[in-house]
């Protein structure tokens, strides 16, 4: 059987309370007593129980993150930013996904409650009623790309609308007049903001929007490419709602002899690492994905450490237009 804290106390000749204080670096324990406790714990291969420690300190040293999905380079980069910031502060990360389903999102939150000191949430299903029904009211929460009408929680959002408008204006400046878009999931607030930015920019030029359905996957971009190829008149540019769909679109066009950017310009959104290595390299909107995760962790740690502090509410993160080969002007 694994050694218990009582075994360590017996071997060191001290009380259980003294062992607890010694293992937690309490200043009240004499140096020689602490050394004796640590030596006994090492000899017995004693591993402190994180659950027991959390009961005594009311801290799990763990934060929870619930994201819409865990697949793809965007979420990989976001998780990397969260994890780096958490580890730098000595925190562990408990991760879950809602898979785009409100019931799964609720189940994930309830499963993590009591195991974490606070939550990072990115979900289209989150509103005040959702949080009230699935989380204790005193649990710190920070939202990412999720906006609540009540604005009662720190929120970090990417300028999806502004980035989409800037991309359309870039394509128009490069001589593209008929610009289509591959949209994202209908319930995703980021996708909706990007689509609105595209629509407003296209209509401002006197043209008509053309939005094809998408779901943020390479397969959706590939399907949209074949849908475009079946049209009587091809657009001269396509703005994909994210880079992964742009990757699938370029593949479909290449398979059918359509050259990018000579015949059709292609642009994406996010600037995932693979974007610069495509052929042609992908013009896109750079999103501070890692920075989004880092800022969210910093705000959550502040809330956990001082529940009475005034949170930074609804911070909009700037994006950057990255021009590469896929959007060069037509010959």
Automatic annotation (TrEMBL):
Which InterPro entries does the record associate with it?
HTH_LacI, LacI/GalR-like_sensor, Lambda_DNA-bd_dom_sf, Peripla_BP_I
Signal peptide as annotated in the record: none
Key word Lipid metabolism present: no
Listed PROSITE patterns: HTH_LACI_1, HTH_LACI_2
Looking at the UniProt entry, the stretches that span the membrane are none
SUPFAM superfamilies, alphabetized: lambda repressor-like DNA-binding domains, Periplasmic binding protein-like I
CDD domains reported in the protein's UniProt record: HTH_LacI, PBP1_LacI_sugar_binding-like
Q: Return the Pfam families for the record.
A: LacI, Peripla_BP_3
Record domain HTH lacI-type: where: 3-57
Oxidoreductase recorded as keyword? no
Q: What is this protein called?
A: LacI family DNA-binding transcriptional regulator
């Amino acid at each position: 059987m694994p050694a218990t804290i009582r075994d360590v106390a017996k071997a060191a000749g001290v009380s259980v309370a003294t062992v607890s204080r010694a293992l937690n670096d309490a200043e009240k324990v004499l140096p020689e007593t602490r050394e004796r406790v640590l030596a006994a714990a090492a000899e017995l291969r004693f591993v402190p129980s994180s659950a027991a420690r959390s009961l005594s300190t009311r801290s799990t040293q763990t934060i929870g993150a619930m994201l819409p999905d865990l697949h793809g380079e965007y979420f990989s980069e976001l998780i990397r930013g969260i994890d780096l910031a958490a580890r730098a502060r000595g925190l562990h990360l408990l991760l879950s996904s809602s898979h785009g389903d409100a019931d799964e999102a609720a189940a994930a939150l309830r499963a993590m409650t009591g195991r974490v000191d606070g939550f990072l949430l990115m979900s289209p299903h989150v509103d005040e009623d959702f949080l009230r029904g699935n989380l204790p009211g005193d649990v710190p929460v920070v939202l990412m790309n999720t906006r609540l009408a009540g604005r009662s929680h720190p929120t970090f959002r990417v300028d999806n609308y502004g980035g989409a408008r800037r991309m359309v204006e870039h394509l128009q400046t490069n001589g593209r007049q008929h610009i289509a878009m591959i949209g994202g999931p209908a319930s995703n607030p980021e996708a909706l903001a990007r689509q609105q930015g595209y629509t407003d920019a296209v209509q401002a030029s006197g043209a008509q929007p053309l939005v094809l359905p998408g779901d943020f996957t390479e397969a959706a971009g590939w399907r949209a490419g074949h849908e475009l190829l079946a049209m009587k008149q091809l657009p001269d540019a396509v703005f994909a709602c994210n880079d992964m769909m742009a990757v699938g679109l370029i593949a479909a066009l290449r398979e059918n002899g359509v050259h990018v950017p000579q015949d059709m310009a292609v642009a994406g959104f996010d600037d995932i690492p693979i974007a610069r290595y495509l052929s042609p390299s992908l013009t896109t909107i750079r999103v501070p994905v890692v920075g989004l995760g880092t800022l969210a962790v910093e705000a959550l740690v502040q809330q956990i450490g001082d529940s009475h502090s005034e949170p930074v509410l609804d911070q909009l993160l700037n994006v950057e237009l990255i021009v590469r080969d896929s959007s060069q002007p037509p010959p």
